[in-house]
Design brief:
- The chain has 137 residues and is an alpha+beta fold.
- 31% of the residues lie in helices and 19% in strands.
- The chain is built from 4 helices and 5 strands.
- Strands 3-4-5 form a 3-stranded antiparallel beta sheet. A two-stranded antiparallel sheet has the order 1-2.
- It is globular and about 60 Å long.
């Protein structure tokens, strides 16, 4: 059996900031920002995936609530493995009005038009994340 194992050296990314997931849960009650669905786990809590638009391994700044989405398993898989298009993404991000109660980001997932719904606090955090990323070299 020793031939089946090998020693390797690897780097492990620290876990995500738990406040990001807590904020998403508080704002969306574990329901997908695209379809509004969830299911309840054995522990009674709704299942959702905290998906980071910019991968956390890219930068410490990517571990922020403005970079995260609350998604169901299906939409998480589509965001990771499917065809995601939004030709006017930068225009949409620039147009976020912090005074509005909500914001919808329009995109297509595998050719199907979808929208990601944000509440006001989350939209403000998204706008701040976008503005900060423009300033980085």
């Amino acid at each position: 059996q020793t031939e089946r194992y090998r020693e390797v050296r690897r780097r492990i990314l620290d876990g995500p900031d738990p406040l990001v997931r807590e904020s998403l849960y508080r704002w969306y009650a574990g329901k997908c920002q695209i379809c509004g669905s969830t299911f309840y786990q054995k522990n009674g809590r709704p299942f959702f995936v905290s998906h980071f638009l910019v991968p956390r391994k890219v930068s410490d700044a990517a571990d922020a609530v403005g970079n995260a989405l609350c998604l169901c398993a299906d939409h998480f898989a589509q965001m990771i493995h499917g065809r995601v298009k939004s030709p006017d993404a930068l225009e949409q991000l620039s147009s976020i009005d912090p005074n509005c109660e909500s914001f919808e980001f329009i995109l297509t997932l595998d050719g199907v038009p979808r929208s990601i719904r944000y509440n006001q606090k989350h939209a403000i955090a998204l706008k701040a994340f976008y503005e900060a990323s423009k300033e980085e070299p």
